[in-house]
Amino acid sequence: MIKKRDWDAYILIAPAFVLFALVMLYSGVFTLRLSFFSWKGLGAMKPRGLGNYKLLFQDPNFLRSLRTTAVWSLCSTVLSVGLGWAIALLAGLNPRRSGLFRLAVFMAYGIPAAAAGIMLKGIFQTDIGMLNGLLESLGLEQWINPWLGDEKTALWVLIVSFVWTQTGLPLLTCYASIRGIPVQLFEAAYIDGAGPRQIFRYLMIPFSLPGVQVSIFLNLLNSLKSFDIIFIMTGGGPLRSTETIGFFMYKETVSFFKLGYGSASVVVMTLVVALFSIPLLRERSRSV
User: 132-141: per-residue pLDDT in tens?
Assistant: First the structure.
């Protein structure tokens, strides 16, 4: 039964919740409706039925953005969560001495995406970038490369950059799961003769898995909706090789004024996000 104090809280948050729901509902319905029309923002909307969707899946740029999104999301999620989990496990072995290192890793997560993009672009630029300058000073001129201007390397440079900004979240969630292990379990394990390897394998890894699940869900969603770092570092180039679905939508809608066509790509992107997130939410609800 809901207590009176709880009802007071619900009443206080109700106006903001209703306003948020109305804005989300209106924008969602309008976007879905607009995806069945051709419109450039002015004049009358011309009905197209499923024409925008048919054109999408015949558009090589959109199909390429789908592949790019799959590589971008899966690689950045696996690498960031795996790296953050590994650091959390190692930090859990010696919490006192790993404090500064954990702070340094997590600070990257707190940097705004725009600021991180500007800073990382300065590292990977061809002419004045720090990486090429370092390679030149070390006499490794053969390794100098236009990292952000080469189709073969641009996406991977973006993934590495994004992983650097996202590793702090899985580090935090996994480390919190490890620190939540009751001390009595460690004491019992030591009494039973367990060594560091057994404690690491049979205590720390299993108890950190809830943090891994949360990290996978959050980092995957962050990668699917990422825009800032791509826009600043490559602008979707070279030759649209780093365009994700979200960036494709921006380009078609804002740059080319194809509002109906861009809305269709938004609907597809929403379905892609749901395709990834719903199974993760179900798995999470079963484990709770």
Answer: 889 888 888 8
Contact present, 149 and 238 (Cβ < 8 Å): yes
Q: What are the backbone angles phi and psi of residue 38, rounded to the nearest 5°?
A: -110, 120
Q: Is the residue at 19 inside a domain?
A: no
Cα separation, 175 vs 80, in Å, equals 14
Contact (Cβ atoms closer than 8 angstroms) between residue 84 and residue 167: yes
CA dist 249 and 109 (Å) reads 26
Range of the domain at 176: 51-287
Average pLDDT for the chain? 88
Total tally of structural domains belonging to the chain: 1
Q: CA angle, corner 26, sides to 25 and 29, nearest 5?
A: 80
Cα–Cα distance for residue pair 124/136, rounded to 1 Å = 13
CA gap 267, 281 in Å, rounded: 20
pTM for the model stands at 0.86
3-state secondary structure of 32: helix
Q: Is the pLDDT of residue 287 over 80?
A: no
In the block, tokens 């090429």 appear at: 132
Q: Report the length, in residues, of the chain.
A: 288
Residues 216, 221, 227, 228, CA torsion sign: negative
- The answer to whether residue 119 is domain-embedded is yes
Residue with tokens 């935090």: 172
**In-domain check, residue 213:** yes
- CATH value at residue 267: 1.10.3720.10
Residue 1 lies in a domain: no
